[in-house]
Design brief:
Layout lengths: L11 H13 L13 E6 L5 H12 L3 E6 L11 H9 L5 E6 L4 H7 L4 E7 L5 H15 L6 E5 L6 H12 L3 E5 L15 E3 L10 E4 L15 H8 L11 E3 L12 H4 L6 H20 L10
Parallel strand pairs: 1-2, 1-3, 3-4, 5-6, 5-8, 6-7, 8-9
Helix pairs in contact: 1-5, 1-9, 2-9, 5-6, 5-9
Bound molecules: N-carbamoyl-L-aspartate.
Length: about 300
């Protein structure tokens, strides 16, 4: 595997290997694995969790790390993605982690550099490391992914997280139902191998309720009448979930809109576990891309 651009680049075996290697990593120690390697983090869109965990992951593996955000860089002066990448490629990075509002930006970066590219979110298209850390969190909390039922609730239409996660869950044998108002469920999404429902009551049987934020920065018009009405009809309140049902959210959360504060802070919430999983999984991904695996022995 040269790059990680989409969940579509992975097989079930790849996913299981990455999750197993994340589980085996000692995240509280500094490991020498990537000594002498340069990891470049290029973030052209806001990020708290993803950018901090990639930076920390690379540092924990002893890589040199260079993190650049669009705000404050020459992107502000009109430099294109191509020229930014060509400029930074002169430092000969081994990996480039890229987040960009445009779909396909990571592929473009791959064309202008020899580095391994990790997609940290491109528009509403893909966010593969988020899906991997979500699987890791579910496996850790619930044991097995096979046969698990996950309800993803909210703004699926604008969500790269949902697209990546549906694909990843299908690969590992879990079942997904997408739940939300019809305006926020993309037409034809069932082709990815999931069910859809416009009834909030359908989350009742799910093992995991995965909540999505209204991604208003990607909406060109009003998809919901008002935040108050959205919260009333689709918000995940204590009354809408049962004890023991796990609740997840990729963050950032909007308390009182898509998720009630009492749910976000409850013992069944895995939201902070997702953040710690993010570190281990991103360490495992960098290791997978930058460290050659021993060749399989050929049996004569
Ligand atoms: C998500 C993203 O940026 O795609 N956040 C994240 O990476 N943790 C989801 C979101 O912004 O709603």
């Amino acid at each position: 595997m040269k790059h990680l651009l989409s969940i579509g680049d992975l097989t079930r075996d790849d996913i299981e290997r990455i999750l197993d290697s994340a589980a085996a990593l000692a995240v509280d120690e500094k490991l020498p694995t990537l000594k002498g390697k340069l990891v470049l983090n290029l973030f052209f869109e806001s990020s708290t969790r993803t950018s901090s965990s990639f930076e920390l992951a690379a540092k924990k593996l002893s890589a040199d790390v260079l993190s650049l955000k669009a705000a404050g860089s020459s992107v502000d002066k009109g430099e294109s993605l191509k020229d930014t990448v060509l400029t930074l490629a002169a430092y000969e990075p081994h990996a480039i982690v890229v987040r960009h509002p445009q779909i396909g930006a990571p592929e473009l970066v791959a064309r202008y550099s020899d580095a391994a590219i990790v997609n940290a979110g491109d528009g509403k298209h893909q966010h593969p490391t988020q899906a991997l850390l979500d699987l890791f969190t579910m496996r850790d909390a619930l044991g097995s992914l096979d046969g698990l039922h996950v309800a993803i609730v909210g703004d699926v239409l604008h969500s790269r997280v949902a697209r990546s996660l549906v694909q990843a869950l299908a690969l590992v044998g879990s079942r997904t139902t997408l739940v939300g108002p019809p305006t926020l469920l993309p037409r034809g999404i069932e082709e990815l191998g999931c069910g859809i429902s416009t009834d909030i009551g359908s989350i009742e049987t799910a093992d995991v309720v995965y909540v999505l934020r209204l991604q208003r920065e990607r909406m060109e018009s009003a998809y919901v009448p008002s935040l108050r009405e959205y919260a009333a009809r689709w918000g995940i309140t204590p009354g809408r979930i049962r004890p023991g049902q796990k609740v997840m959210h990729p963050g950032p959360i909007n308390r009182g809109v898509e998720i009630d504060a009492r749910v976000a802070d409850s013992p069944d919430s895995l939201i902070l576990a997702q953040v710690s999983s993010g570190l281990a999984v991103r360490m495992a991904v960098l290791q997978e891309l930058l460290v050659a695996r021993p060749a399989l022995e050929v049996v004569a």
